[in-house]
Structures are given as structure tokens and as C-alpha cells.
């Protein structure tokens, strides 16, 4: 049986354990999903030492950035944005644990926004939609711009995704 989980603190807001436990049962997946409510990130190595069957875990507040020094590798996009929300746990042939960080917040945000931007840009090109951005010396028409509120791990993915989509913020 494989073990997965959610690392963060506090976790009372999270529905992940219930969601994934039901999903594993419904789909016949031999796995469990636990919440790892860790008050300080420095407890992570001890947690990992106790869970030899851990195959991976999600990362939530406040550790999306703080977990990075504990990882052995980062996927290119997670490294570029400086935030991780998924950690894959693998073992070398000699049994050494390897932790690789990824960011799926980026994929979810970018791929949800892309079709909406494509539609809006098409409407703007056809003249059936106008987006106005006020600027100091007057109004400029035809500019799509975003406002990002927050500076945490999720906002890093949002900002990175906006840059990839060519949307200033």
C-alpha cells in the first residue's frame, strides 16, 4: 500500500484527506491519504523517517516555499517560480530517499485561464470587446491586465502563469 498526504499547518481547512480517501476507495487504488499537520517545517525530516511507505505529498500553507531547502530536486517551473505544492518521494537502489518538488498550481491556473484569454483576445481582435486600462496620461484600449493579491506560494504560480500567458500584472 502506498501512502500520500498533505503537509501544512494548520490543516483544519483542508478537505484533501476525505476527498482522496474516497477517491482511492471508489477507484480501487491501494493507497491511503493522511494529513501531516506539522507546526514547523523543520519537523519534516523526522516525519519522513517515520513514513517509509510515503510515495508523495501535497504542500499547502505555509510551506510552499519553506519546503524547498528540504528537497533534492525541483522541476524547472517550480524552480523558476520558487514554490512547490507537490513532492514526489522515490528511493535510490541503495534505499536513499529522494524528494522532487513540482508545482501543479501553475498548470491548473494557466490551463483554466488560457481558453478565456483566447476568447477575449479573439473578441477584442474582432472589435466586439474592449478592455480598458487607465494610465497616468490617459486611457489605453485593448490591454488585458491582471491584479494579483497576495505574495505566498500560490501567488507565485499565478504570477508565473500570467507571465507565460503574456498578461501583465
The CATH class of the largest domain, by name, is: Alpha Beta
* Terminal Cα span: 44 Å
Strand order of the largest sheet: 2-1-3-5-6-4
Number of domains: 2
Which structural class do you get from the secondary structure elements? Answer: alpha/beta
Total of helices: 5
| CATH third-level topology of the largest domain | Rossmann fold
Low-confidence stretches: none
Question: What is the alpha-carbon Rg in Å?
Answer: 20 Å
Could you name the CATH homologous superfamily of the largest domain?
Leucine Dehydrogenase, chain A, domain 1
Helix content: 25-40%
Give the overall average pLDDT. Answer: 91
Describe the structure.
By secondary structure, the chain is of the alpha/beta class. The chain has two domains: 2-102, 3-Layer(aba) Sandwich (Rossmann fold); 105-164, no CATH class. It contains five helices and eight strands, in the order E-H-E-H-E-E-H-E-E-H-E-E-H. Strands 2-1-3-5-6-4 form a six-stranded mixed β-sheet. Helix 1 links the parallel strand 1 and strand 2 (31-37). It is elongated, with a radius of gyration of 20 Å. The mean pLDDT is 91.
Give a quick precis of the structure.
By secondary structure, this protein is an alpha/beta fold.
What keyword list fits this structure?
6-stranded mixed beta sheet; alpha/beta; 169 residues; 2 domains; two-stranded antiparallel sheet; elongated; 8 strands
Topology of this protein?
Layout: E1 2-8, H1 16-27, E2 31-37, H2 44-50, E3 54-59, E4 73-74, H3 76-81, E5 86-91, E6 97-102, H4 104-125, E7 132-135, E8 138-141, H5 153-164
Parallel strand pairs: 1-2, 1-3, 4-6
Antiparallel strand pairs: 3-5, 5-6, 7-8
Helix pairs in contact: 4-5
